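#struct-pred

JT: dropping the chains for the assembly here, can someone run the whole complex?
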Amino acid sequence: MNVEPWLNEFRDPDYVFRASAILLGVGQVVTTLEYLWMRSELGDGGVYAWSVLRLARPRRHPTIEKLRDALFGQAGTVALLGLRLLLAVTLVLFASVAWLATIAVVALAALLLAFNVRLPWGMEAADDVAVHATLGLAAYALARLFDAPSLGLYYVAAYAGLVYVTSGVTKLRDADWRSGVALGWVVNLQVFGAPWAVEFLAPRPRLRQVLSWSVMLAEVSAPLAVLLPAPGIALVLVAGLAFHATTAICMGLNTFVWAFLATYPAVLLVWTTLHSLAIHPLAEP
Amino acid sequence: MSAITILVSVITSAPLVALFLLAVRYQFYTAQQLRQRRPPPLVLRRQIRLFSPKPIRTDVHLIARDVRPDGVPTPCREIPIIQLRHWTHVLWNPGKRRSLPLLSIMPDLTAISTELGEERAAVVLTRPYLILLGIVSSQAAADARACQYLLVERFGYEPEFDAQVLFCSAVHRLDRSEVGGDRRGSL
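RK: done, full complex below.
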């Protein structure tokens, strides 16, 4: 199967923006609905009670504090989540309407930064990747209004690469990951694991070690994928998707799939850019 | 390219370049350095490790008991935080929005408690402590006079290991709050 014509679609930054925005939007719809489902946790007696969390915020002018309490109290946060849901749905449905997508992605970036302050704990790596992907998309969308080039989409790809490499390197430095023992610990947890995964992996130490090394090497070498030919990069991204789908099934990390998938179009933009340069090198001065 | 185009390019790209370089630098800080540093503005930089180098090995469970009006404590009960894995979690997993904070709260609480040293009693004024007290007091029996909680760790699905107590709170008297008749713990 020749995937190159399809991959070459990602040469167009607008196409990349639309693809990323839709995937990011779907992930944000799921994340926001999860928070809305658990909205009782935002009030007193919940894990995100603002009456307690506000104690760690610096004192401000009383008017600002009143505004902050109104926004970050339970009712205000639910309203902000409603707005976040609306913006995410807008991204999914209207990613190709430039002005609407720009408003949605810029407003979403501002809202996600506000939620970074409001929800100081319980954020996953997927939430962090989503914030940075939104920032990159917002920068691209704003620059596009002026027909100006921007590094926004390249930032999305670079941040995904940083996340993969960092977690791969730190795992490689640990003997428990290299031996496969750490993988057994993770799947054994009630909060992240699954009983069927424990039953399957516990009696198979060699398989645990092979899986651990596969993950570590894939994470460390992820950025090198942009140097591969078309079938290679396609295979790497499919493997990445399969990895995140597996963690969603075994560990319940459902939003990782959408957050990381949203960065893949930007990775393909880097791939097409590099390969264009290789095929049509810049003229020497 | 016009001057405005160049300006827009710089404005939309330069902060991202700076942010990326700072994010790379942030990955090299040790745990001790991170504790000494102020949190980055808007929490824009994090150390993303994806379960490395040492993944957590134990689940943390929140255990509570009330003190009845006659002064007798009730048996300990677990306040459900962790949802066991279900196939629907591949798409929809709202329960983790309740269980993940506990993974941060527990090490925060123990780290603060250790840092306080001789003044460990001041731990009751910290956010993690107060959040857990809020959860426990909101679920206390209607006629309870006081409540107390424990943080307990267990090795996941391994039944042969006994649970270990990580933290034991003080006993807190429960008062009717002035607002809405909620039950609140008092220090």
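JT: nice. Chain B touches chain A through 70 residues (CB under 8 Å). Residues 3-43 of chain B form one domain.
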